[in-house]
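FIELD: query
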Amino acid sequence: MRRRIQVHGIVQGVGFRPWVHQLAHTHGLAGFVLNSPSGVVIEIEGPGVAQQRFLDDLRGRPPALAAIDEILDESVPALGETSFVIRQSDDQSTGFALVPPDIATCADCMADFRDPANRRFAYPFTNCTNCGPRYTIIEDIPYDRRFTTMREFPMCADCGAEYHDPTNRRFHAQPNACPVCGPWVELWDHDRKLSERADAIHAAQRHLADGAILAIKGLGGFHLACDASNDTAVRLLRERKRRSGKPFALMTATVQTAQSFCNAAPADLDALQSIRRPIVLLPSKPSAFVSPQVAPGLDWLGVMLPYTPLHHLLFDGANFSALVMTSGNLSEEPIASLNAEIAPRLHPLADYVLLHNR
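FIELD: result
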């Protein structure tokens, strides 16, 4: 007895195939799972009772990041297979798959890049199946590394071993990378590269603490950042951006720091720490952490927490508590997103640029 199952919704880039692989092994089923342009295709073969339990679990407890819209199920001829595998994605058929959002860094990955004994120590592109970039690196569907901007970075042997290990949380994590094989960061002034990798992040911290304005390349484009407690830096950023009164958003390392300059209800704290890491509007209270120039004349602040390893590393050990994080553009212009836009569009706004090559 064999079934063919088609799953539609946000089911690519959310650890769905590794989860299905584990689920099939749990229920003793053979077959395969693959990404297709319209979602995920599964075929299972084995006892009818085991297949029904598999379907119940598929419907009732999918991965936390998945959002299933529809499951189509039909009987197909048995093939006599005895193992379950993740197959090469089908990119020949037509269809439409929902693209997952970028997902804030998980606690496990934060532990990795903060552990001096870990090979990803201080690596600003650490991710796994449960977190990391999705939407901003996808160029086509189905969601495979070859259809993302990570195709320029072939995995090293260690990352490849993680990718193919069903027991590893990086099993089939498409953006998987490390300092040996993945992207890296560089710090530039207007004329030359000053430093790279961990040295670039430490230098960026020093410049921010000294009152400089930095353009920082994140996921979807560049932010302009400065120390939120520095009146002079915030005023200068307003002048350069030609943004006279509109409030700036803030990024701070923890909810505890946010609570030191804002009043946050439990629902606000939940929103701040959610996997989307939104900007949350909070009632402000007097604090040396925040210049009045951040939101002139207003009693509310827009606050967010770090959502990539790079942002977390910028705060680790830094001599500032909050950063202005505003769009990397002159007011009313599109946000700069490409390295080629740095000289014409960001040099007039920023003293330094912290960029990367993904």
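FIELD: remark
The CA atoms of residues 210 and 279 lie 26 Å apart.
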